[in-house]
Amino acid sequence: MEPLWLFADQLGPHVHATDDMRDREVVLVESTRALGRRRFHRQKLHLVLSGMRHLADELGDRARYLRADTYREALEQVGEPVVVHEPTSFAAADLVERLRKDGLVADVLPTPTFALSRTEFADWAGDRERFRMEDFYRAQRERFAVLMDGSEPVGGRWNLDGENRESPPKGRRTLGVVGPWEPTEDDIDAQVRRDLADVPSIGVDGPRLFAITHAEAQQALRHFVAHRLGSFGPYEDAIMSDDWAMAHSLLSVPLNHGLLHPLDAVHAAEQAHRDGDVPLASAEGFVRQVLGWREYVWQLYWRFGKGYTRRNALRAHTPLPDWWTELDADAVTAACLRDALEGVRDRGWVHHIPRLMVLGNHALQRGYRPAELNEWFRTAFVDGFEWVMPPNVIGMSQHADGGMTATKPYSSGGAYLNRMTDHCGDCAFDPKKRLGEDACPFTAGYWQWVHRHRELLAANNRTARAVASMNRLSDLDAVLEQESAREGF
């Protein structure tokens, strides 16, 4: 029976311990070239090596752990062709196909780390060119019978997002929930840290914050459902400067490393609601993120094709500044932007609202190159694999696909940030001002962005009001002149 070759995002028992896989030798490859090809976040590299080495230790004699310059060199050492599950990127899929043609790979099997197969999605999508996540999400709920009462959604509504948009609680510096589950580092982590000491990277080294074994993932899921899921929903779109995790699950790392199956996660959340332990809005919000958006992003990555990351519908050509790529948060004055960049520097992670409405919003307003931004998100975030970022960054965040993913660009001024974060009170900039030395760069930048794309926005009924509002600004020319000369943020 051919050995089973696992990539670093295929580490769970639903990949290697099923009835047709459990008797195969497992091959894990640590490729020096792959690790050093780009400057990844230091903690991202740690998680990749820690996950593979922990699995090899867990499997014992069943695992063959190979270190080589390239995957090809490693597989040549195996001595017989291997089988492998479908990789999660175009580049890896192309590599596997070349290795198959050369006789090093015997068979490529469907990926088992997502709920919906690519074939099933193709059947559902048909010949559509544009997709609504809400349609996909409802189909997922029905297909997998999650939060359903027969043919109807539990509670009578599919989407409770309107109940999950609370501002940060006033007068508090933290949400006040039980903290996230934390792993205990071991000798494997210590050796990984030593081995990575001289590998070029960005960000800071730090204690491992995320689950990277199946057992840890199960513990983290149970902890989240028992102690944090109930508070997740109402505040999932809020940001608190002294509470980086708030009530978020921190399960994106074990999910994206294939350690936790998405259906296990959503079934746990569903059961907690049916047991009366968490409100429906919180359970549904989590299910929508995992069974809806995450699965949707995976499918769109393949559907949109290899050239998707080159899309640039808004003609954004500004290179990423050095302070951004080097994670130099100390060079940033705007409190929300500084805090988000600190989170990336210190943890390789911030939750979805800092990603979209702070980092992405700033990049959209300043016209940063979408492909360059997409690559930054992929390498700087600990949960950023190649399939994860294009629909999130090129589509949702930067609208560079011209509306294939989202019906409107996601840009906002300081008013939104003042409502949904607790940053503005301590910031040197005033979210209510668009002109002057203390004018909020998001407020002023928003009007500059609206002016730059006024024709496109006026033609979209979801954004036409912004153009009408801009046309009523008496100081628009001064704002545009100010923003064209602004250097600091």
In short:
The chain has 489 residues and is mainly α.
Provide an overview of this structure.
The protein is mainly alpha-helical and 489 residues long. The chain folds into three domains: 4-109, 3-Layer(aba) Sandwich (Rossmann fold); 118-180 and 228-304, Serine Threonine Protein Phosphatase 5, Tetratricopeptide repeat (Alpha Horseshoe), CATH 1.25.40.80; 310-485, DNA Cyclobutane Dipyrimidine Photolyase, subunit A, domain 3 (Orthogonal Bundle). Helix content is 47%, strand content 6%. The protein has 23 helices and seven strands. Strands 3-2-1-4-5 form a five-stranded parallel sheet, sandwiched between helices. Strands 6-7 form a two-stranded antiparallel sheet. It starts with a strand and ends with a helix. The mean pLDDT is 96.
Reconstruct the topology from this structure.
Layout: E1 4-6, H1 13-16, E2 26-31, H2 32-36, H3 42-59, E3 63-68, H4 71-78, E4 82-85, H5 90-101, E5 105-109, H6 118-125, H7 133-144, E6 148-149, E7 152-153, H8 187-195, H9 214-227, H10 229-232, H11 252-256, H12 262-274, H13 280-304, H14 322-325, H15 335-347, H16 352-366, H17 370-380, H18 389-397, H19 414-420, H20 441-452, H21 454-458, H22 464-471, H23 476-485
Parallel strand pairs: 1-2, 1-4, 2-3, 4-5
Antiparallel strand pairs: 6-7
Helix pairs in contact: 3-8, 7-13, 9-12, 12-13, 13-18, 15-16, 16-18, 16-20, 17-18, 20-23
